[in-house]
Amino acid sequence: MTFTATFPGGTSISRLTVYTGACSDGLEGGTPHLHTASTEAYVVIGGRGTLQTLDLNGLRETELGPGSTVWFTPGTIHRAVNRGGLEVVVVMSNAGLPEAGDAVMTFPPEIVADAGRYREAAALPPATATATATETVQAVEAAVARRRELAVAGFHLLAEGGPEALRRFYDSAVALVRPKVAGWRETWESTVAEQARHTAEVLDALERGDGAHLQRSALMESPPQERWGMCGHLRAHDVAHPVVRTPGPS
C-alpha cells in the first residue's frame, strides 16, 4: 500500500475575508458565482453576514454568524454579503477543480454566452516588471471591483428572470467549462478517486489484521498563500503539494 499525502477526503481549504465596499445595489461582499462540479462549505469563524443563494427554487437568504456551517451543491449561485467583519473557512470538494475554472461568475447573458468575452471579463491583471507593488495591487483591486459589479448586475437579472433565465445561464456555464473536463478528470482521479481507493485498501488490510500502513504515518503542512478570490481576500492552502514534515520509512 502506497503512502498518500492527499488532504482528507480529497478536499481543499482556505480562509476567506469577505470583501468590503458597497456594490451598486448597496450591499458589501463577494462576486456571485456557481460551481459546475464541486460542493462548497462555509464555516463562519468571525463577523456577521448573509449568504444569498439562487437556484430553480428561487432566491434565498441565510444569516451567517460565528459557528454557522452551510454548504451548497453545484448549480447553486451564491453571494457572500458582508455585514461586519465576515470571515469564513471554506472547504471545497474535488480539490484542484475549483482552482481550474470550476466556478462561473454571473455575468450578463451576452458575456456568459461568449467564451472570449467571459475570459476577458473574469481576468485579473498580471504583475508587470514596470509596475510597483502598490500599482499592481491597485490594478487588481480595480479589476476585482469591475468583475464584481458585472456579476452583481447579472445576478439580479437572473433573480428577476425566473427559472428559464437560470436554465439558460446553466447551459452557458456548461459550454464554458466543457473543454476543461478532460483535465479535471485527471485531477479528480489523482485526488478524490485515489483517496477513496486508498481507504478501500486500508479497510481491506485492517480486515486481514494487517496494520503495516500505520508505520508509514506522516505529518503534512501547507502554508497559506495570499490571493484574490471571487468572494474576498483568500489565504489558500496548496494541499496538492504539501510539505511532508515526518515522512514514514520507505
UniProtKB/TrEMBL annotation:
* InterPro entries xrefs: Cupin_2, RmlC-like_jellyroll, RmlC_Cupin_sf
Query: Record's SUPFAM superfamilies?
Result: RmlC-like cupins
Tell me the domain of life.
Bacteria
Q: Where is the Cupin type-2 domain?
A: 29-91
Q: What is this protein called?
A: Cupin type-2 domain-containing protein
Q: Which source organism does the UniProt entry give?
A: Nonomuraea gerenzanensis
